[in-house]
Design brief:
The chain starts with a helix and ends in a 6-residue tail after the last helix. It has an 8-stranded mixed β-sheet, covered by helices on one side. It is an alpha/beta fold and about 270 residues long. Helix 2 packs across helix 5 and helix 3 runs antiparallel to helix 4. It contains 10 helices and 8 strands. Helix 8 links the parallel strand 5 and strand 6. The chain folds into 2 domains: about 110 residues, no CATH class; about 150 residues, Rossmann fold.
């Protein structure tokens, strides 16, 4: 089951989680009907419907579905401003108090997360991973941690690190490197230093040319390019290593942990 609320709570920092819960409670409090504003039941019902819908699906990710609730909330706020009718002072303490209590319960109930942030890197598993991914949003998607979280649920032993630039790779840490999409402008000596320990280099839909990447000496190079990918450098990579065609895939690689990490870990060719 996909749950928009839990998805965002997992991805947010603790401050973000507090603000998210606080925001929902504040909206519900503002829309709470009183004797002089019974029509508030309509905005309240709209927001409750959105909350329930986002609990059982990922509809919360659609910006369009927030338009009606936002208009309803604006209507409530304008009415309260015009009539100077705000919730009682003692009720104003409810949203922050309940939000803090909710986070405390989450901290006590939820198990220790295997996902940690190390500087600008996202590390999955214990210790410093030997497999690293340089994630390009065009290739792996803007929400690339989500499929990774699904893969982690299926394989708790999964271990890897994720960065968005070669500059953010730790020195001498990557034994296996998955490099996707474009190559950020980086000095060649920095790239050589970051890739010095790489034994297995996996390129996925590389939109740069071989001359731009100093390939580590002795590294096993594998290249995967989507069947419908629009990258212009595909033919230039043919002399470097055998190219694996990702059947039915374009520039974006869905479910990338299954398609890339499992293949990198097992040392086999990358499958779809």
């Amino acid at each position: 089951m996909v749950n928009s609320h839990l998805t965002w709570l997992v991805e947010f920092s603790w401050l973000g989680r507090f603000l998210y819960i606080f925001g929902w409670l504040a909206v519900l409090l503002l829309c709470l009907p009183t004797q002089g504003s019974r029509w508030f039941a309509v905005p309240l019902g709209i927001w409750i419907s959105l909350f329930i819908g986002a609990w059982f699906s990922s509809v919360g990710e659609s910006v369009w579905l927030w338009i009606v609730p936002a208009v309803a909330l604006a209507w409530v706020i304008v009415w309260r401003l015009a009539n100077r009718a705000w919730p009682e002072t003692k009720l104003l303490f409810l949203p922050p108090s309940l939000a803090a209590a909710s986070l405390l319960c989450l901290a006590l109930v939820l198990p220790h997360s295997p996902v940690t942030k190390q500087g600008k890197a996202l590390a999955i598993g214990n210790g410093i991973p030997s497999t690293w991914v340089v994630a390009d949003q065009v290739v792996l998607g803007k929400s690339f941690p989500r499929p990774l979280r699904d893969a982690l649920a299926k394989n708790p032993q999964l271990s890897c690190g994720i960065v968005e630039s070669i500059d953010d790779l730790p020195d001498n840490a990557a034994s296996t490197l998955i490099l996707s999409g474009k190559l950020e402008p980086t000095k060649s000596d920095v790239i050589e230093r970051k890739l010095k320990s790489v034994k297995s280099l996996n390129l996925v839909n590389p939109s740069f040319f071989p001359a731009e990447l100093p390939i580590p000496k002795g590294a096993d190079v594998r290249i995967a390019i989507g069947e419908f990918s629009q990258i212009a450098s595909a033919s230039d990579w043919a002399p470097v290593a055998k190219i694996k065609t990702l059947v039915g895939i374009g520039d974006f690689v869905p479910n990338w942990p299954t398609a890339l990490l499992s293949a990198a870990d097992s040392g086999k060719e990358m499958d779809r």
